[in-house]
C-alpha cells in the first residue's frame, strides 16, 4: 500500500461570490518532498493553502492532506505546520512567550529544537515580537511551525516581503528543518529564485487552474526550446524564433531553465485561461 499523498485534490473548486479562485483543480503531491507552488498574484495559491489548512471550505470537489480531510481533528492538526502570509506573530508577546504558547498548544512540541533555532538566528527571548524586523519575525514563525515536529510544513509566501539576505537565511532555515524533521513542505511563492533554492517538485498555478505539476528534474528533462516545434510535441508557448515545447521528441532542442518553463505556462494561461497541462 502506498503512503497517503501530502495533498490530493479532485475537481477542487473555490468561489467567492462571482469570483472563481480555483476551478476544477486535480492535483497529487507526494509526501517527503519540498513542493514549490508558483504563480502570479491572484492565481489561487493562498486559497489552495488555506483550503489545505482547513481555514476555508471548498465550494465543490475534494481535498485531502496526509490522507485525511484538512484539519480533520486535533491529531491531524498536529501533523501540519503552517506559516501564513506576512508571517503573523503576536506583537505584544515576547519571543519566549511565543515559545511557551507553542508548548502549551502542541502536544508534540520540541522545546529544544525551538530554543536552538532561536539562538541560531540571534533572537532575544525577552524582545517583543512587535519590535522584531521582518526577517526576524519570519524566523520566529518558522521556528514555531517546525517545533510542532509536523509531517508537512505549509508556507504561504513567507519571505515575499523580506530583503534578499533575510530571504536567503529563511530559505536556508526551511531546508534545514525539512532535513531534520524528515518532513515534506509546500512553499507558495512568486519568486522563482526561492523555489529553485529548496524545491524538488513544482506546481504552476495560474488563472485558477493547475497548469503543470511534477518533479522539477522530470519537467526540465521533458521541456525544451527550439526554433520550431518538432512533430509529436506539445507546444506550451511560441513566439517569433522560439518555441517552448513538451515531449520526448524535443530531445535535440536546448533545455529550458526553470524560469523559462514557468513563464511559458503562465504566458499560455494568460492567453488561453481554460487550457491546462
Explained architecture:
The structure is a single chain. A hairpin with a 2-residue loop joins strand 11 and strand 12. 42% of the residues are buried. It is globular, with a radius of gyration of 20 Å. It has helices at residues 45-52, 74-78, 95-105, 111-120, 134-146, 164-181, 192-198, 216-222, 258-271; strands spanning 7-16, 19-29, 34-38, 60-65, 80-83, 152-156, 184-189, 201-206, 209-215, 223-226, 234-239, 242-246, 254-255. It is an alpha/beta fold and 277 residues long. The chain has a six-stranded mixed β-sheet with strand order 5-6-7-3-8-9, with helices on both faces. The chain has a four-stranded antiparallel β-sheet with strand order 11-12-10-13. The chain has a three-stranded antiparallel β-sheet with strand order 2-1-4, with helices on one face. Helix 4 (111-120) packs antiparallel against helix 5 and helix 5 packs parallel to helix 6. The chain starts with 6 loop residues before the first strand and ends in a 6-residue tail after the last helix. The mean pLDDT is 90. It folds into two domains: 32-53 and 68-200, 3-Layer(aba) Sandwich (Rossmann fold), CATH 3.40.50; 212-271, no CATH class. GO terms for molecular function: ATP binding. Keywords: ATP-binding, Nucleotide-binding, Transport. This is ABC-2 type transport system ATP-binding protein.
Amino acid at each position: 500500500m502506498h503512503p497517503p499523498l501530502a495533498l490530493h485534490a479532485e475537481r477542487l473548486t473555490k468561489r467567492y461570490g462571482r469570483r472563481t479562485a480555483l476551478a476544477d483543480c486535480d492535483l497529487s503531491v507526494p509526501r517527503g518532498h519540498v513542493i514549490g507552488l508558483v504563480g502570479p498574484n491572484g492565481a489561487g495559491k493562498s486559497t489552495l493553502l488555506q483550503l489545505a489548512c482547513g481555514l476555508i471550505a471548498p465550494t465543490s470537489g475534494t481535498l485531502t492532506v496526509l490522507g485525511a480531510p484538512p484539519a480533520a481533528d486535533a491529531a491531524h492538526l498536529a501533523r501540519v505546520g503552517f506559516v501564513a502570509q506576512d508571517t503573523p506573530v503576536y506583537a505584544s508577546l515576547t519571543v519566549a512567550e511565543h515559545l511557551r504558547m507553542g508548548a502549551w498548544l502542541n502536544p508534540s512540541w520540541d522545546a529544544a529544537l525551538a530554543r536552538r533555532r532561536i539562538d541560531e538566528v540571534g533572537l532575544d527571548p525577552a524582545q517583543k515580537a512587535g519590535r522584531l524586523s521582518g526577517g526576524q519575525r519570519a524566523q520566529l514563525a518558522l521556528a514555531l511551525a517546525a517545533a510542532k515536529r509536523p509531517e508537512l510544513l505549509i508556507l504561504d509566501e513567507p519571505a515575499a516581503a523580506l530583503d534578499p539576505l533575510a530571504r536567503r537565511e529563511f530559505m536556508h532555515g526551511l531546508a534545514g528543518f525539512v532535513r531534520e524533521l524528515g518532513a515534506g513542505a509546500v512553499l507558495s511563492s512568486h519568486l522563482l529564485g526561492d523555489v529553485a533554492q529548496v524545491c524538488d517538485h513544482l506546481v504552476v498555478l495560474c488563472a485558477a487552474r493547475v497548469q503543470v505539476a511534477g518533479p522539477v528534474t522530470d519537467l526540465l528533462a521533458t521541456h525544451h526550446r527550439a526554433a520550431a516545434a518538432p512533430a509529436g510535441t506539445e507546444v506550451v508557448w511560441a513566439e517569433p524564433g522560439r518555441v517552448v515545447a513538451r515531449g520526448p521528441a524535443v530531445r535535440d532542442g536546448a533545455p529550458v531553465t526553470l524560469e523559462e518553463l514557468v513563464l511559458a505556462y503562465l504566458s499560455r494561461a494568460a492567453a488561453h485561461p481554460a487550457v491546462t497541462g
